[in-house]
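Re: weekly structure request thread

Next one in the queue (288 aa):
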Amino acid sequence: MSFDLNMNELLVDSVDNLPALPQTIISLQEYIAKAGSDVDINQVAQIISADPLITARLLQLANSPFYSFKSKITTLQQVVSLLGIANVKNIIMADSLNNNFKVDVSPYGINTDDFLQKRNEESQFISSWLLDEEKRLAYTLVPCAMLLRLGMMIFSNFLIQNKKDKDFLEALKKYNFSNLSLVEEEFLGVDHISFLGFLFSKWNFDEELIETICFVNTPHSAEGKIAKNAYALAIVNCIFAPYSGGSSFMVENALSLIKEAKQKGISFNVDNFISKLPSFARQNLKQA
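Done, posted below.
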């Protein structure tokens, strides 16, 4: 099948019909943009507190293994002070987006419960791995990890609505599920991770996160602090990539990326990384 330009245009147009961000998040974005360097923590907390659901979820996330704070976080001011305003904005946006989409990844031939479990494990892994090395990096990348497969969810809904889901699944089977990006590009003109960069830009995520996502597939091309972000997510993608994540080949790819990053002056602790690998990946380590 060749790439259908009309399908790509329909996909881009369909983004306008995606669930809108909650008004609280929009108000928070507007305030931060307007305040600039004069952003006030108390004002940020006040805006968030207007939405009891977002407030409850943010406190729940702050007290989750994602951040592993030594003592319980009980106020919004604490969350904002500890994580930073940008990270708080990004995490509540990521959580809201994840909860606002219907999840049916049957076009990928993946069980939805398995997909959701892996998505959660992916987010937990990046925090458990990086919190011991660089907390700022962990805080920055948790929202990215939470949304790394959002493109698959959107693609699935789009394919189902346009009655292309069965053709898509057959194409994946034809390649024995070994070339996901190629099939996505054939049907939609873009792979799900690259598409996420477009979504991050549309939803006004921080520029750092937008650039990070744009370089996940090519971390060697990134520069500055974006390079370490991109390498970290690329490494995580090797462990949790659909179908092949955590295989001997992908574990070897992850370790190769760590070595490549080191050559560019970007340091990751290999022993720490290996110790935090999920069991399904660690069992392939000796073969890698």
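The mean pLDDT is 91. DSSP finds 17 helices and no strands in the chain.
Next request, please.
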